[in-house]
Amino acid sequence: MATLLTVEDLHIFYDTIKALKGISLEVKEGEIVTVLGANGAGKSTLLKAVSGLLPIRSGNIKLREEKLNGVPAHEIVEKGISHVPEGRKVFPTLTVEENLNLGAYIQRKDKGKISEAKERIFRLFPILQERRRQLAGTLSGGEQQMLAIGRGLMSTPQILLLDEPSLGLAPTLLKQVFETIQQINTQGISILLVEQNARKALGIANRGYIFETGRIALEGTADKLQTDDRVRRAYLGGRRVH
Fold first, then answer.
1. DSSP per-residue codes, 41-59
2. Euclidean distance between CA atoms 99 and 108, whole angstroms
3. 212: domain range?
4. What is the pTM of this model?
5. Structural domain total, the chain
6. CA neighbor of 92 nearest in space, from 153, 140, 126
7. Which of 64, 156, 173, 191 could be 32's S-S partner, Cβ–Cβ 3.0 to 4.6 Å?
């Protein structure tokens, strides 16, 4: 598989605080790669840097062989990277359909493409079609997460950055969210998944990286990480993922 996203020796600061300390990782075409770690380990910072929301102090971010350092966030979306942020961040006073339309702003002149993208989202999330004229702020937490993912898919990305998609969801919805991520992946979209539920994330991922205080402490295939004693003790309650 060809490498789609490359992060090389990435250093990110918040003022004088060093948030990422030389991170290097990659996502290949067709992969689901998960990033795990405690709160404050730098996982969300990584996604924000990749999507152009944070300046890079040093290092490189590349989509295929094209360097993205300094490229504005809206141009990164146009190049094929879409970011679904933590906390969903839908526009509560806009309808479901209006939220989806905003996700397609890079194709705003091509109504046919927008319509096709929207139909794909409605096949993935039939509930959004039922609620297309409903205000996003009146949706349940699970429905808002579906809308946030759907909005991210409206730009027809090559790679989807997902930040804590299961956060705050009822246990009954967790299975559905992770099945949806797998379904998106089968459509040819690579996924970089930041997730607090290590068991579920490693259950669907090809590979993973464990972050500790801005550095990569461990990396490997999902199977290898599931059986690593340190991962099992810290994230899996001492048991192997099933």
1. SSHHHHHHHHTTSS--SEE
2. 13
3. 1-80+196-242
4. 0.92
5. 1
6. 140
7. 191
